[in-house]
Automatic annotation (TrEMBL):
Membrane topology: Single-pass membrane protein
Gene, per the UniProt record: tatB
NCBIfam families, A to Z: tatB (TIGR01410)
Keywords, in A-Z order: Cell inner membrane, Cell membrane, Membrane, Protein transport, Translocation, Transmembrane, Transmembrane helix, Transport
Reported function: Part of the twin-arginine translocation (Tat) system that transports large folded proteins containing a characteristic twin-arginine motif in their signal peptide across membranes. Together with TatC, TatB is part of a receptor directly interacting with Tat signal peptides. TatB may form an oligomeric binding site that transiently accommodates folded Tat precursor proteins before their translocation.
Protein name according to UniProt: Sec-independent protein translocase protein TatB
PANTHER family assigned: SEC-INDEPENDENT PROTEIN TRANSLOCASE PROTEIN TATA, CHLOROPLASTIC
Subunit description: The Tat system comprises two distinct complexes: a TatABC complex, containing multiple copies of TatA, TatB and TatC subunits, and a separate TatA complex, containing only TatA subunits. Substrates initially bind to the TatABC complex, which probably triggers association of the separate TatA complex to form the active translocon.
Keyword Protein transport: yes
Family to which the UniProt record says this protein belongs: Belongs to the TatB family.
Keyword Heme attributed: no
Gene source species: Acidovorax benzenivorans
Protein localization: Cell membrane; Membrane
Amino acid sequence: MIDIGLSKMALIGAVALIVIGPEKLPRVARTVGTLLGKAQRYVSDVKAEVNRSMELDELKKMKDTVENAARDVHNTIQTSASEFEKDWAEATDTASAALQDQTTVVPAYKHPGKNWRLKRGAVPQWYKAKSGVRTKAQSGAARVARYRPQKFH
């Protein structure tokens, strides 16, 4: 705001002491300080309001440009979609006409003869039994009970 040096402050303080008097000086200084604080707050509020209005204008301009761009993209997509539909309709009409000219032969269904429930492993069962590979799921408790030593009566 105002650029006041130390020497100017001392001169103002000396003049204020002479004019006002030493007993009223603290109250006057307090009043001047509060008024300066209010003035600074008012100036900062005005600056903030101006900045907000400038940002609002910028945002409105940006919104308008984005809306225009979105409208342009929508129109472009709509025209290209309608052209594609027209081309597709022409292509399918020619293809369907060509297909109607040909006689369609549908082959008869033949069962593949597979049993999908039957598991066909590559390793023979006798090899799994010999090497001790587990072929059936068994809980841990059942496995412990299976290998527990038997009591002789």
